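Design review, sub-item: ligand-bound model
Attendees: FS, YL, KQ
YL presented the inputs for the NAI complex:
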Amino acid sequence: MAMKISKAAVIGSGVMGAGIAAHLANAGIPCLLLDIVPASLTPDEEAKGLTTDHPAVRSRLAAAAIARLGQTKPAPLYDEAFAGRITPGNLEDDLAKIKDADWIIEAVVENLAVKRELLRKIEAHWQPGTIVSSNTSGISINAMAEGCGAEFRNHFLGTHFFNPPRYMKLLEIIPGETTDPAIVDGMKSFCERTLGKGVVVAKDTPNFIANRIGTYGLLVTLQAMEGGGFTVEEVDAVTGPAMGRPKSATFRTLDLVGLDTFVHVANNVYDKVEEGAEKLVFETPQVLKDMAARGWIGEKAGQGFYKKVKSSEGGSEIQSLDLTAMAYAESGKISSPSLEAAKAAKGAKEKIKALLGAGAADRYAGLAWAITKKTLLYSAEKLGEIADSIVDIDRAMKWGFSWELGPFETWDAIGLRRTAEQMEAEGEAVPAWVKEWLAAGNESFYRKAEAEGMGAVSFVYQGRYKEDVPPPEHISLRGLKERNKAIRSNSGASLIDIGDGVACLEFHSPNNAIGADILTMIRQSVDEVQANYEALVIAGEGRNFCVGANLMLLLMEAQDEEWDEVDAIIQVFQNTMMKLKHSAKPVVAAPHRMTLGGGVEVCMPADRVVADAETYYGLVEVGVGLIPAGGGCKEMALRLTQADPDPEIDLQPHMNRVFLNIGTAKVSTSAHDAKRLGYLRPADRIVMNADHRIYEAKQSALRLVQAGYEQPQPEKIRVIGADGKAVLKLGARAMRDGGYISDHDLLIAGKLAHVLAGGDLPAGTMVTEQYMLDLEREAFLSLCGEPKTQQRMQYMLSKGKPLRN
Ligand code: NAI
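KQ shared the predicted structure:
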């Protein structure tokens, strides 16, 4: 069922309500945001002479929440202007307006009585067909809807977003007993496609999936810690990246969430499960009670398991809590063969194997085993109760807690049969279904699917393997390569057949930095597509699309003063981009996440960009003391000419903005922001779901083919010339005088101004693309000879961040 949601209402404008409203606005859905009417005036309102009857006072909570969106970090909105899509109101004067919404989301305090009462009020204005959902963290959906009408209950379900809603991929959908299955399916596909979420379907049990297993995992970690006398820092060293989990590991995460919130969530399970081993685990540990009694509840209280203190040198340092002494102390470096082995191993599977493989004599391996074992067993025990599918449990933990592997994937990785036997030998109760599964001769929960679907796997489902063929929108390059669909490949990139006459160029060098191998593959791809395919897509599946050109070789040549070599490197880059631009077949680039410097220059020649909404896009070469010389400056100048072909139009104000963006190495905070900055063109598309990106790029490419694609011809660029350059340089000078940029920045800005302005020609002169490329190359070469530029490159290579010198 296709769900049509063009307007929404969110009730409750706290952390979650405001975040959800913002994300709906991100998706282009106008949203009403309601909250309670405040009981009293703020001093500010009093000073203005307002009364509690004034509309601005009555809707203050929601209005203030919207106003805060612009200051919240990380930014909830793709573009601050999207706040205008959210209308504030209050529950007393504006509730009737919810009748215009297609989806009403309740996100008020976690209290059954309050939520129930609110549902009754919503029902009074409810229009047949409208979806109503609750964003509860763990209250029963069925209990909440008790007493509501049957038709209303058919349209009611749980939609549990994770905080912050824009960034956390997980959305748990919880159908109630009477929710119409068509509505569950429709909402699942709507939330995946339009909101870009990863949806899992959970059962109506306390805390649903991720928080049920997550809190259990944390509580058994505390037990194992106490049992083995481990410190806070030791536990975090083991339970972070070494186990394929985020750096915030156990206690930094807990500090961030807040001990009070955590205890509240854990109590929700404690109150609802039957007497027995599970209930005992969910009983609040004494140490958390002791910390809560002192008010040490985490970051919001300034201290929890960690505390930031002033160091003797005047800076600050992080101390950790010694749980025996209940005092904070500086901690030492933690190391062991198991941790070192995990660090050296590549990928989460190998890391956890290395960590556990160090053997019982290594105490950290022992701790990791104790925690892993309990978490795997609990996940297996809860299958069927909290979710029907192991895939949903694995995905919930990956998308909601940022684990790299879900529990069942972890169990497969460490050897299902062997470790299950070990658990039994250690006196653990391995769930019957797991034993039956093993007895039937199976060696893993997942296996490669027989089906031809891209990236398909099978997994255990109700006692047998079930094929899981991903929807057509999920194109998996890895899956295709496993099925021998790579057309050609080298150390940095591959060209893969993604079907329907479209080939996809994927970068896979470290950090996807562009080197000679990638450039070669780009040229070969253009030729291959010209000969045998209809269109080319450029996309990848790495953490980032591309962080720029590989600086290592460049720096070495520059330090050796091999200027001909440097010149040749840039020429190859420029020529490759021009070949891509003038490809006889359409090219669509599909960037995601970090797309910087050369990464942007690879996208610029494409006919279309289909960007993931979370794309951080910018020409950042100035950060390493250079200017864009792979056609980045030329393309920006060309775009201004194309946007305003009328020779009378003054390009200077537009060029000032381009100059500022490149000169300050500005990076967009989203793909929408990249449009606002002029890096993406109006016709470029933005995709909400990162998993659909390659498919959407392919569709765009096919549409270009169908529209009768014509090979692009060389174009002329109208330059702002010497006068325009003087204006740009004046701006840079003012920034230097104001102390915003360094002398070296000013030098680079001068060269950048020269390139963008088209040199010293009269304003309005029409120049060729090659003329502009030559200017880029000349400026780039001269900057490579600057010691401060070389320092910047060196610093970036060793530290991974820019040096301001
Ligand atoms: P919050 O405390 O930031 O916001 C709660 C909102 O409810 C406030 O705007 C408050 O004015 C409003 N409210 C209070 N009493 C009310 C009443 N009687 N009637 C109507 N509105 C009332 O809380 P937060 O964190 O936004 O949580 C909201 C819901 O989302 C809760 O059910 C919570 O369990 C759930 N949740 C919270 C997550 C989080 O990380 N904070 C994550 C996922 C779900």
